[in-house]
């Protein structure tokens, strides 16, 4: 088939614009493998999404991320239905639309990022580690006390990183359930179990307004009485001597509270499932705890919680000899880049000792994930606490993946286990 622009549309690429495909690993990766081998730069036209170029090779993803002047985040940083694209743009123009680090380009992106950067540097991570280790022990103890079965996602993987990130922000534990619900609704707009209402642009706007109401009050409180936490740093952050706008402030909270929690949840739960599905690797890791750092990287590669980001060309260019016109968008398929046969030896093998492991799960370049070190620390603490105490583990039902086109992973992981 052809599109109005004359590009040949890829049938295999249509899975990328189909939320249900991300809930079916076999279907998703079969199509991605075909694209890498046959059409690594593929034109995709699958309404209600606007057309885009699917970039499925690791090298091309890295090159586009590196060239953040030629390929920019605005005005289309994420894959959303056309109606949602239009609604977000209208909201931003009206000063009420979410505008996180994900949506920004330099120099504003660089200036905004600096405000929170110190809270994710090594010294801050060392200071936070006591709290992270304490929470890891709390949740493994709960597994022991509530066993021998649980839904690992809803009882452990969701709550543990949420408590970490909201502790970093300095929010009271009484507010954590509210933040969890809002986070699930924000990222669950394509999933029937988690979305608010019908999951349309009006429902997403309602979720964002709930976030805005909560964090506007937090900003006012932290400006009046700073408390030495990340929320205070954001509330009192300035650019060129001027305080952040209300929307930039709220957007900063939202990206930290939601993305910083949900992605780690997906890596933790998907990592445990990978160990269950590969018992020889689980035994290998239990026998040699020194492999934990490489095991964590492999879990992050294997799960790829952030499925994509979009970039828009600012000038006519080409990728692998394929012309891309100014104004056209490219879809960076991280899930594909992390299984690229030219970069990873036997990429469909889960290998806890894999080195090197040049995965793109945290992005690359100026948009490299601000919380990457925190995510690694959280995973290291939890698995470092769980694995030495784990005597047996198996599935107690069928795992379920969420439908998404952006951030996602397991929404249910029923397990049966024995812990000491």
UniProtKB/TrEMBL annotation:
<dbReference type="InterPro" id="IPR017972">
    <property type="entry name" value="Cyt_P450_CS"/>
</dbReference>
<keyword id="KW-0753">Steroid metabolism</keyword>
<keyword id="KW-0408">Iron</keyword>
<protein>
    <recommendedName>
        <fullName>Steroid C26-monooxygenase</fullName>
    </recommendedName>
</protein>
<keyword id="KW-0560">Oxidoreductase</keyword>
<keyword id="KW-1207">Sterol metabolism</keyword>
<comment type="similarity">
    <text>Belongs to the cytochrome P450 family.</text>
</comment>
<keyword id="KW-0349">Heme</keyword>
<keyword id="KW-0443">Lipid metabolism</keyword>
<dbReference type="InterPro" id="IPR036396">
    <property type="entry name" value="Cyt_P450_sf"/>
</dbReference>
<dbReference type="GO" id="GO:0006707">
    <property type="term" value="P:cholesterol catabolic process"/>
</dbReference>
<dbReference type="Pfam" id="PF00067">
    <property type="entry name" value="p450"/>
</dbReference>
<dbReference type="GO" id="GO:0005506">
    <property type="term" value="F:iron ion binding"/>
</dbReference>
<dbReference type="GO" id="GO:0036199">
    <property type="term" value="F:cholest-4-en-3-one 26-monooxygenase activity"/>
</dbReference>
<dbReference type="GO" id="GO:0008395">
    <property type="term" value="F:steroid hydroxylase activity"/>
</dbReference>
<keyword id="KW-0479">Metal-binding</keyword>
<dbReference type="InterPro" id="IPR001128">
    <property type="entry name" value="Cyt_P450"/>
</dbReference>
<comment type="pathway">
    <text>Steroid metabolism; cholesterol degradation.</text>
</comment>
<keyword id="KW-0442">Lipid degradation</keyword>
<dbReference type="InterPro" id="IPR002397">
    <property type="entry name" value="Cyt_P450_B"/>
</dbReference>
<dbReference type="GO" id="GO:0020037">
    <property type="term" value="F:heme binding"/>
</dbReference>
<keyword id="KW-0503">Monooxygenase</keyword>
<keyword id="KW-0153">Cholesterol metabolism</keyword>
